[in-house]
Design a protein that fits this description.
Layout: H1 5-32, H2 42-67, H3 72-95, H4 100-124, H5 134-162, H6 167-189, H7 207-212, H8 214-228, H9 230-260, H10 267-320, H11 325-353, H12 356-384, H13 392-413
Helix pairs in contact: 1-4, 1-5, 1-6, 2-4, 2-8, 2-12, 3-4, 3-6, 4-12, 5-10, 5-11, 8-12, 9-10, 9-11, 9-12, 9-13, 10-11, 10-13
Length: 417
């Protein structure tokens, strides 16, 4: 696939976009969670998740209508240029020590455009890859993008370690992210405007009418998904459950890094521990890309999905209940592997089962499910997790959730080749 020019260019846009996402998210973590002046709680993390993701969960599905009408190449090009401008403005707000709600508003806009672009990248992939190579493409592209995001986050952590904590280092991180967003936009501009679709339909209404019909169009997409693609529905349900469990464990690791593995006043140490956990997860994401095509050919997509969910039910309590740095890092690696592998399976099933005219809307709904699951995980964890992050019931509950998800998915997929 790497010999194909159009595939390489789409992959380049993804890598640059998600590399800059990682840097930007590191600045958010530094400002909200690891600031020496703040005593962050699970509720603070849940609030940050809600501010950044819930509004887009309302707006996001309407983006799918546009993805099925606008040229997706233009979405990638102009979207990244928009994020460049917003990031520059966010850096200015940090330097001026503007009110916190202004910073969150700017970050919200950057994140909203980011989700729009990720949905467009997923919907565009079948346009540059043969159908029989979609599993491999879905192993390579989202995984490589996630690894790029982790590398970006690691770069952000390194910059944070070199600069004194405060608005200057946070603004420097956001400025680096802005430069990378600009590079991603210029990379998208190199592709042909018509390359990524969607196909032109002269009988489609104009943009104003299309936006007016957006609600009905989304219902049509959901109806198509439910009636014509039950395997895709099962896959979306399973990957949403996995995302919820992953969100809970992310908050646990954040709290452990800040208050248990380091002194509460040691913001640099806490961020470094979190960065190490992310690096182990990146190795897991890479391993998922390596093993998923092989495993899915031998076990089937359904079999590989079930295996991933069931294995998490075993290793999460076996490693997580120690609440020690070493086992937690191994768990981060394995969690990265199974989380990315379930997404590879779900992406491939949705792309195979959903018609091209509905694919943008379905992937936008897919993205909303991801966001809502992550926010719900933060909200639930904020209610039950102590400040230290040390909670046996939470870890056991996550393991049970993985086990139940594996059981229900296996039963629903029984008899399907």
């Amino acid at each position: 696939m790497l010999r194909t020019r159009n595939f390489r260019r789409l992959l380049e846009v993804r890598l640059l976009s998600q590399l800059s996402d990682g840097v930007f998210q590191a600045s958010l973590a530094s400002y909200v969670i690891f600031s020496p002046e703040r005593q962050s709680t699970p509720a603070d993390i849940a609030s940050m998740m809600a501010v950044l993701l819930l509004p887009f969960s309302v707006i996001g599905p309407f983006a799918g209508v546009l993805l099925d009408r606008w040229r997706r190449r233009q979405v990638l090009y102009l979207g990244n240029l928009t994020r460049f401008g917003l990031s520059v403005g966010t850096a200015g707000l940090l330097l001026l020590r503007a009110q916190e709600w202004l910073f969150f508003a700017a970050a919200l806009l950057v994140t909203a455009v980011n989700r729009f672009i990720l949905a467009g990248l997923s919907a565009s992939l079948p346009r540059v890859v043969a159908a029989d190579r979609l599993v491999t493409a879905n192993a390579l592209c989202p995984t490589a993008g996630t690894v790029a995001a982790v590398i970006g986050g690691g770069t952000g952590v390194l910059v944070h370690q070199l600069l004194p904590p405060g608005p200057l280092s946070d603004a420097a991180l956001v400025t680096v992210a802005a430069g990378l967003y600009l590079a991603a936009g210029l990379a998208a501009r190199r592709m042909d405007p018509e390359l990524l679709g969607p196909e032109h339909h002269p009988d489609r209404p104009n943009l104003r009418a299309a936006l007016g019909q957006a609600g009905q169009a989304l219902l049509d997409g959901l109806r198509h998904l439910v009636r014509e693609s039950r395997p895709a529905v099962r896959a979306l349900a399973a990957v949403t459950a996995a995302r919820f469990c992953y969100g809970v464990l992310i908050v646990v690791v954040l709290m452990l890094s800040r208050y248990t593995f380091n002194r509460p006043t040691d913001a640099r140490g806490g961020l470094a521990t979190l960065g190490t956990a992310l690096a182990f997860s990146a190795v897991g994401f890479f391993l998922a890309a390596v093993v998923s095509p092989w495993c899915s050919r031998r076990l089937g997509l359904d079999g590989w999905m079930t295996t991933c969910l069931a294995s998490a039910a075993v290793f999460v309590p076996a490693l997580g209940l120690s609440f020690a740095v070493g086992p937690i890092m191994v768990a981060a690696l394995l969690l990265g592997l199974i989380t990315q592998a379930t997404k590879i399976c779900a992406d491939t099933i949705v792309q195979h089962e959903v018609a091209d005219d509905y694919r943008g809307r379905v992937f936008a709904l897919y993205d909303v499910l991801f966001n809502v699951a992550f926010v719900a995980a933060g909200a639930v964890t904020a209610l039950v997790l102590p400040l230290s992050g040390h909670s046996v019931p939470v870890v056991v509950a996550v393991a049970l959730a993985y086990a139940i998800s594996a059981l229900f998915y296996a039963r629903g997929a029984r008899g399907r080749r």
